[in-house]
Amino acid sequence: MTASARLLTTLRLGACALLFATTFSSQAAQTAAPPAPPLPAVADTPVSPAKQALVDQLLTLWHPESVALVMVQRPAADAVQQSRIAMQGRVSAEKQEATMKAISADAQRYIDEATPIAQAAAAKAVPQTAGKMLAQQFSEDELKQLIALLQSPVKHKFEQLVPQLERAVGDKVATDAGPQVQPKLDTMKQAIATKLRTAAMVP
């Protein structure tokens, strides 16, 4: 396995498992996804100053603490989306707009209050988890290769192009499959709205 492949495997273990266990747990149960792989054991072995400097540089380039933002924002986004769905067909458009505005304000307030807490926890957790895992799983030479990979102008160019690539694929799929998928989507929305209205009327 190449150093870059090992980066994708090792660096994502902690972040993906954490997201899986918290923000995605209900979704995983619904889709019967396989359990996340176990985290590798982290030993408190001494790390040379030179290797620690490489680990610190890699963490600076990678920004694993961004997982905290996802963990905070995901529940808020889900709550807003579920609220919008729950009100469809049950309240007037004017009342729905006013209610969604208030709900969005509540969600933003939660994000503003929770984000600094999660960021502080992530800043403390990264060296204790990802930092130790990197030092344990990679040699100094491999860390240098990973740093060069993350600093590569070709990688930067590719990442800048990714949104355009994804949009191109999405636009083509929407054009080709949209006429067939949209009626099914409308049917699903109508069925859900009907069940919500029925549930609201039943004592």
From TrEMBL:
Keywords: Signal. The keyword Signal applies. Residues 1-28 form the signal peptide. This is DUF2059 domain-containing protein. It comes from Ideonella azotifigens.
